Amino acid sequence: MQSGTQFTQGLRLAMDNGPAWMVEAVRQVRYHVISSDHLFSPDNSTLLTGCPDAPLRSGERRLVVIDENVDALYGAQIREFFACHDIEITVLPLRADETVKQFDAVSRVVDAMNDFGIDRRREPVLAIGGGVLTDIVGFAASLYRRGTPYIRIPTTLIGLVDAGVGVKTGVNYETGKNRLGTYAAATATFLDRSFLRSLDLRHISNGLAEILKMALIRSEELFELLERRGPAVRADRFQGSTGDLAQAADAIVAESIHLMLEELQPNLWESALERCVDYGHTFSPTIEMHALPELLHGEAVVIDMALTTALGTLRGDVDQAQADRIFSVIHALGLPLWNDVLDDPSLLEAALRDTVRHRDGRQRLPLPVGIGGHRFVNDVTGAELRAATELLRRCARNVAQGAPAEVLVGA
Ligand SMILES: NC(=O)c1ccc[n+]([C@@H]2O[C@H](COP(=O)([O-])OP(=O)(O)OC[C@H]3O[C@@H](n4cnc5c(N)ncnc54)[C@H](O)[C@@H]3O)[C@@H](O)[C@H]2O)c1
Ligand SMILES: O=C(CO)[C@@H](O)[C@H](O)[C@H](O)[C@H](O)COP(=O)(O)O
Ligand SMILES: [Zn+2]
């Protein structure tokens, strides 16, 4: 036999220089995303029986980690719900905003799991809050005993349409956005839009940014729906106050989640790094962390999308009328087109370098093609970024003055 030659007998490899084995396995994963409004009404049984993989029976107990602001608003109702169903809960209220999305917060959840003496399989931790809270709890649960089940109940729009439906967990580390994290599916996510009634409009817009992301890269229909009904649905906080608003809110949320899950399911562990759902997330991680706490996550994402729309326009992939529509929808949804961090071209170039490290040596930059399409490029230069920034600067100024963006390339 030649040196290094191998043959397999199941696990065992026969090598000329000693025994060796190769292990190969595929991990099956299944999780549920279930909508039900007013989850904590005493007569709503969705949390108890709605998920076949996570039944909750009277006499059982649960650890509940809840965003402290959500606790202040809904804690009494939540405690009453569990008491009414004879479920004993231990509650950890946690401050959860981007500035404290750090490993310390994960430690606090781990401490609570340990003190609770959580059962490895049968006592999923309940995470109730926005994307920050669910990312922290998901991370802690994925670490404890190398994986303890958890359930998400998102209370923000970003949580409902994005952070609550994928498998990524994580916290920021130093200047790195979500630099520490794991892939860990929650057994179930329960979507209750009624939580959005207490969310301020800035955070509704913040969630609309991620919905707009899905529209720009995947669906012209969703974009048109946002264009026609987005501002009214935003003002109504997705509460469906009239039949028409309810229909629009239902369609926007359901379509956005559906498109997201269509993208995630075949590539759940991100073995392929060309991900169109990374649109808006090339420059934004650096922009968001640099501007922290000035910009919310979705605001940083939308500035990235505005910049890359300008880039797409310069490349001829997005025509000027399409760019005009995109910029005016961003504005109409209460989102920014510009932030002064863009004044520093070296920041964008640093962001691109970091993205290249994150995407295994290539830019793999999703760029819009028209409205609803995309392609990946690897050849964006610093000069091109500067030209796109100048184009965006002019358009953003026009839009801020109430005028059309007037995306005149070469003007
Ligand atoms: N895991 C993922 O796939 C994924 C996807 C998208 C975003 N994210 C992460 O999500 C985070 C952003 O999430 P977010 O926008 O939900 O922010 P957030 O969790 O900070 O919540 C926003 C604010 O709203 C408050 N709040 C929450 N629910 C409320 C309610 N119903 N009424 C009133 N106030 C309420 C919170 O206390 C907080 O102050 C970012 O860190 C981002 O990285 C993760
Ligand atoms: O922001 C997030 C996840 O934090 C999502 O909106 C988004 O779809 C993607 O997961 C992002 O592209 C982020 O990916 P990554 O930089 O955390 O690897
Ligand atoms: Zn995002």
UniProtKB/TrEMBL annotation:
Entry-linked Gene3D superfamilies: 3.40.50.1970, Dehydroquinate synthase-like - alpha domain
UniProt keyword terms in alphabetical order: Lyase, Metal-binding, NAD, Nucleotide-binding
Range of residues in the leader sequence: none
Ranges for domain 3-dehydroquinate synthase N-terminal: 94-205
EC number: 4.2.3.152
Primary enzyme class: lyase
InterPro entries (UniProt xref): Dehydroquinate_synthase, DHQS/DOIS_N, DHQS_C, EEVS-like
Descriptive protein name: 2-epi-5-epi-valiolone synthase
Domain 3-dehydroquinate synthase C-terminal: 207-354
Pfam families attached to this UniProt entry: DHQ_synthase, DHQS_C
Primary gene name: aroB_1
Reaction(s) this enzyme catalyzes, per UniProt: D-sedoheptulose 7-phosphate = 2-epi-5-epi-valiolone + phosphate
Cofactor: NAD(+)
CDD domains for this protein: EEVS (cd08199)
